[in-house]
Every structure is written in structure tokens, then in C-alpha cells.
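Exam prep: given the inputs below (a chain plus adenosine-5'-triphosphate), describe the expected output before reading on.
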Amino acid sequence: MSVREAVLANLGKITDPISGKDIVSAGVVRALNVEGDTVRFVLEIDPKHADQMEAVRATAQQAAEMVPGVAKVSALLTAHSQKAPPPDLKPKAKPAAPQGPQAVPGVGRIILVASGKGGVGKSTVASNLAAALAAQGRKVGLLDADIYGPSQPRMMGVSGRPASPDGKTILPLRNHGVTVMSLGLMMEEGQAVVWRGPMLMGALQQMLMQVQWGDLDVLVIDLPPGTGDVQLTLAQKFAIDGAIIVSTPQDVALLDARKGIDMFRQTKVPILGMIENMSTHVCSNCGHEEHIFGHGGVAAEAEKLGAPLLAEIPLHLDVRLAGDGGVPIVVSQPDSKQAEAFYDVARALVGQGVA
Ligand SMILES: Nc1ncnc2c1ncn2[C@@H]1O[C@H](COP(=O)(O)OP(=O)(O)OP(=O)(O)O)[C@@H](O)[C@H]1O
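Solution:
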């Protein structure tokens, strides 16, 4: 029996006081991850029962610690998401009047990945984060809303036009455990699209509401760079759980990132934190590390803004080659230092109950 199976077997002996079933079959145990001698999992609970479930968490931790070969156990409580019911595709007599931000049917949480300017690695972060969350056992979707340069089809290794068997709903593609949809998949190859206001709103609405996302714990949205219509529409019209701002250490990128942060603050989207990308350069020949774009800038900025610094991702040739090859580094080289930085972010987000 593997360590994972042994842990699950022990956890399966613990009763969930809410449903009366055991905590594994009740779906309370989520994101179980075994790495070497370390076991991590979360107990997804209704916050109303937090006090009662703390005792269950302690028992679950002990039960996992009893498994031979396990040295360290991290068992956390996280609030379960208030999922919207699955889509009702029956035609309605009249469309409901819009009331406040909309939830996306079946989708637990929505996280935006944003950057002040282009080319800082926002899409790289979004694809790796989505794949790392999927590897943690989360049900993950990735929407590429970068209308200016949709790169997720290439980075996630998906191609082909998504099918729409009924002409109303769109079937997304899937790779690396992630359900993927991109505006790029809906355009003709090499076609330049000038998205004008209403058309853009329509496309976004369609991507969120007509794509059959299925039952997702979290939908990661890769935004276009800057603070344009896509960001504003999403922040104002949809229930967004948080935004992650990606920046390089260069000052100019930081200034732009600040604008992005201001916009999310104004639209009341919580800032989950900042990620410094291309933090240090790691030579792929000798492993030598150099701070070619300076160092610590994003950390200092994050502190000033009161936002956590979620990760410092090194600039490494393998990250680019992995992205270009359609297999994110967290999948192609899960044990590398570069991948580890993304896994840390994924674990932190799961631990905080936001992903
Ligand atoms: N940490 C890294 N190490 C090496 N290459 C990287 C790293 N992060 C990103 N890159 C590469 O830099 C280029 C730009 O990255 P990416 O497309 O993710 O940026 P972006 O911010 O989404 O850009 P845009 O907004 O223009 O789409 C890509 O070729 C990517 O593979």
C-alpha cells in the first residue's frame, strides 16, 4: 500500500460529525499531497462548524502521523466555497435583471492573474499555477482572457477549435488536469482582432457563462496586461475572489503594477499578493544565480502596499522551454527549484482557502 493509500485508509476511519459519513467519503478531505515523508491536506468545511471541526482536524493529523514513513503532516481547515448551482440551460421566459456581480455556474472561486505591463510572465505564472493547483487535487479551470496575445493554447499544449454541439454551449479543452479555454482558440490563425467595447463584453460573458466549465474549485483567469476594459468588466460584473499581480524587479514594471493594484482596490477585488518573476537568473549550464534585474524591489513594493509577496520565481531557460513546449515546468520538471516556487504559491492559496 502506498503512503497516500495508507493515509487515506486512516482518514477514512474518522467520522465527519456533520454528515455522519467518514471524512474521506464525505468529501471533507481535499488536496491530499504526499511529497517524500511530508503529507499535506486540507479539510474543507463550512465556517459555521469551525470549532467542532478543529477536533476532527487534530484527530486527522494524528491519524496521518501514524502512517509508517510519514514524518511531517500539515492538516489545515479551509472554508468550503459557496458554489453556484450548475447551469440551467432551459430557455427562460425573460432574462433576469442583472443584480450585482454574477457568479459563474459551478465555479467555486475566481482568481485573476494580472500584470501592469506585458512580457513579465503573467501567462507563465497563470499556467503553472493552474497546473500546480490541479496537481494538489483541486478541480481547476484556466481562462485565457488576454485578448492582445492569447498564449495559453501554446503554454498548455491545447489546440483546435472548441466544439459547440448545441450551438449554445462551448466545450472547453483539457490538458495537465486543467480545463482550458482561450479567446485565442475562437480566432482564426493569424487573425488580428480589434475588440470593440460591446463585442469584447460579449466575448467575455460568453467565455464565462457559455463555456461548460463543469464543477470547478477554482477558475484562474489570465488577464491582458494593464488596466483596460477586460479587467474592469471582470472586476465589476463577476464575483472575483482575488487577484495576483505579477511583476519583474525592474522599477518601470513596478510602477505599472501599482496602477493595477489601485484598480483592483477601487473595484473591491482583494489582492492576494504579488509574485516577483525573473527574480534571479539561474544559468542553465553552471547553476550560478545573478540578480540581473535587481532584487528585492517587488518585496519592498508588496510591503509598502500591504500585500504579501507570494513567490520569487527565478529566470531560467527551462521555464521558457517548458512554456513554449506546451508542458508547464510544474508538470515537466516538478522537482526543480523553479517548479517548487509555483507549488509553494499553490499550497499557500489552498491553505488560505482561496483556491
Ligand atoms: N521565470 C521565467 N524564466 C524564463 N523565461 C520566462 C520566465 N517567465 C516568463 N518567461 C518567458 O518570457 C516570455 C513572456 O512570458 P509570458 O508570455 O508569460 O508573459 P506575459 O506577461 O503573459 O506577456 P503578455 O502579456 O505579453 O502575454 C515567454 O517566452 C516566457 O516563456
